[in-house]
Amino acid sequence: MDLLLLKIALVAYLAAAVGLSLHLLSLMPAARRLGTLGLAAAFAAHGASIFLRSVAAGYPAFTTEYEALSFFAWLTVGVYLGVQARYHLPAVGAVVAPLAFTVTLASFAFYAGVRELPPNLRSAWLPVHVTAAFLGNAILALAFCVSLVYLFRERQLKEKRIGGLSSRLPSLEALDTLNYRALAWGFPLLTLGIVTGALFAKHTWGRFWSWDEREIFSLVTWGVYAGLLEARMVAGWRGRRAATVTIVGFTLLFASFVFGQMIFPGKHGGSFD
To answer: How many CB atoms lie within 10 A of CB 188?
Structure first.
């Protein structure tokens, strides 16, 4: 049943991506409604899928490769829907929906039946660490999507395309402000994820840090975001530079996830060793 719900969510994500994109191209109210309702329906079906998987497994379903990808996509959409309820940014949704569709589709490549949680992962630290880390990742994914829209909007203005699609995009100031707020929330959660991960490692394996590939990538990513926030607060970085570094930071963040969860899983649950 969880897989069926995930397939429904996947179709709804695709419908949302099409609807929101059509709205930007044509300003069709029906297309915007399709996109918004599609994204909300996908989020609900996806959440139900994760819940049923968790009930069947007996632990929160975010440990295996499939579960981690699925959980990340769901949280990213949830963060966007929360922001959308206040700021009304369908242009950002037109980026979030394809991202959620792509990540959810990728999760199918790793789908497997429920497996028993290994003894070394049966700790109260696991949900604390994973929730903080993944929520931070999802908020930073939103900052990434906002940055892509910012760079596109800036290019439209430089080419003096002030009508049509360009006029349907948020202002550069609004996008830059949202980018900063997402970073201001996402970075502390990313930090908390690293700290709780170290405490989890100490509790389970007897040491805080192992210098495996996931930890190294995470540390580098943390340094990029820390530098970006300092540059914004102290040096007054805004606009294109901030958006570009945000994109670089998320690229490293996602690479950290891929390396740590799939290529070099180590102790992050991918191999269940």
So the answer is: 14
pLDDT of residue 134: 92
- 148 CB-near residues (< 8 Å, 6+ apart): 95, 243, 247
CA atoms 241, 246, 247, 252: torsion sign:
positive
* Burial (Cβ within 10 Å: 0-12, 13-18, ≥19) of residue 211: exposed
Residue 84's CB is within 10 A of a number of other CB atoms, namely 18
Asked if 183 and 60 sit in the same domain, the reply is no
CB atoms within 10 A of CB 16: 28
Q: Please give the backbone phi and psi of residue 247, each rounded to the nearest 5 degrees, phi first.
A: -65, -45
Quote the DSSP letter at residue 108.
Answer: H
Mean pLDDT of 225-252: 91
Global pTM reads 0.89
Neighbours of 191 (CB within 10 A): 16
What H or E segment, with its residue span, contains residue 210? none
What Cα–Cα distance (Å) separates residue 258 from each residue in 64, 105, 177, 213, 267? Answer: 12, 15, 29, 10, 14
Dihedral of alpha carbons 148, 149, 154, 157, sign: positive
DSSP per position, 86-126: HH--HHHHHHHHHHHHHHHHHHHTT-----PPPGGG-STHH
Domain that holds residue 26: 1-114
Q: Can you tell me the distance from the alpha carbon of 60 to that of 19, in angstroms, rounded to the nearest whole number?
A: 32
Last residue of a domain, one of 114, 129, 151: 114
Q: What is the CATH number of the domain that holds 50?
A: 1.20.120
Is the pLDDT score of 72 beyond 50? yes
pLDDT beyond 80 at 255: yes
Nearest of 41, 50, 36 to residue 11 by alpha carbon: 41
Give tens-digit pLDDT for 176-193.
999 999 999 999 999 999
Task: Tell me, yes or no, whether 250 and 151 share the same domain.
Answer: yes
